Amino acid sequence: MKTLLTTGLLLIYSMTFSQGSYQFADTTKKWNTLTYGSWAWDIVHCGGTKTNKISGEVVLNDMAFWNIFEAIDSLQQDWDNVGIIREDTIEKKVYFSMGDPGEIGLIYDFDLIVGDCVVIDNYYVGFENVVLICDSIDFLTIYGSDKKRFFLHSPDHWDSDVWIEGIGSKFGLLYSGLNGALIAGGGTDLLCCSKNDTLIYMDSVYNSCYIQEFYPKISSEYYDTAYLNTYYEFQVQVSDTGNIGSYELIGNVIPNGFEFNEATGLLTGTPVATGLFPCIITIRNNDLGFLTDILNADLPVVLANAIDNLTDYSKISIHPNPFTTSFVISGQDMQHDSYILEVYNSEGLLIDKSIISELPFEIVSRHYPIGLYLVKITDVMNRKMLICKGLKH
Predict the structure, then answer these.
(1) 121-152: per-residue pLDDT in tens?
(2) How far apart are CA 159 and CA 156, in angstroms?
């Protein structure tokens, strides 16, 4: 998976801040940090945005600390105390503790020079003895003050870190020294930092201070049924592309006899065998550089004459879907007293049949093999047919 981290910055300048000021532990600042995880097929799932602020002094081991609070809601109304932080403005070091007098860990050292080695004990993420080596230093002007930017690497891990005076780590305020790949297959990114509700730092890739989901999404949930020896077309539907500069569909697993046009999202083919065939298509946000969604379902191929004239999908439904030991069929416009309910497997074979007079109606399915099923309800009076699909897993 391509590393999600970036050193690209959007710096908001202001000359109202003292040129000589250094403050890191500032009660007028807020930090927003994005969390994410990489799951099956390298789809990156958003874990939401955390906001941190500093407020209220406390004393631990005869030293002054500040409380750190964290909110995960967009309105920032529910704050939890997640620890305490102490800044030594003379030594330019920052310490963090969960409140245990015996566990006060160094999380930043802004007095490093090139070649220096520092050991980080970050109790917020549960890491101790993380060794970082300073590779280079440059300067950024943030809020009217020149701040050092430190480029560091860990000899024990493949990842690196970047610190900015007064801002913190590119991983987020409380993620200093964190290897981005060590959090459940994902990591964290600092989205932005503000002072007095004015932006002083923003990541130039995400360009947002609050992210709850990654886009675009594949809105198709399953594939239409294909018929043996009959030409087939299926258009993959994509949503939430409005604010995305570039994205692409990828045909990861396409069944034999089918082709997927990644430019148009059109799946075509003429199947030569019946059955359920795995078909996997993913979508990639090129702005962010990672996959954001997946369509992972079986493509059903049935005999062309197994089920005729199945045209109305709108008036009956199955729940739960997917199902296991049973499912309930719900519907509307049941105007007569007698209906034929039939269940077909993916090969078009009838496996269940009942006479019903009303919906909802429950079907016991514990004896069904895992797979895709078609449910058909036929009005005995006028032979009108309704159909829906269900999946057993």
Answers:
(1) 999 988 889 999 999 999 988 878 888 999 99
(2) 9
The closest alpha carbon to 260, from 244, 240, 290, 283, belongs to 283
In a shared domain, residues 175 and 48: yes
In a domain, 1, yes or no: no
pLDDT band at 1 (very low <50, low <70, confident <90, very high): very low
Q: How far apart are CA 166 and CA 153, in angstroms?
A: 20
- The dihedral of CA 262, 265, 270, 272: what is its sign? positive
Boundary-marking domain end, from 255, 276, 302 = 302
Rounded CA gap, 66 and 103, in Å?
16
pLDDT tens profile 43-99: 999 999 999 999 999 999 999 999 999 999 888 889 999 999 999 989 999 999 999
Taking CA atoms, 351 is separated from 43, 169, 341, in Å, by: 36, 60, 11
Q: How many domains does the chain have?
A: 3
Instruction: Please report, for the domain that includes residue 274, its CATH number.
Output: 2.60.40.10
Name all contacts of 236-245 with Cβ < 8 Å and 24+ positions apart: 236/265, 236/266, 236/267, 236/281, 236/295, 237/265, 238/265, 238/283, 240/215, 240/216, 241/215, 241/216, 243/215, 244/215, 244/216, 244/285, 244/287, 245/286, 245/287
The yes-or-no verdict on residue 13 having pLDDT over 50 is no
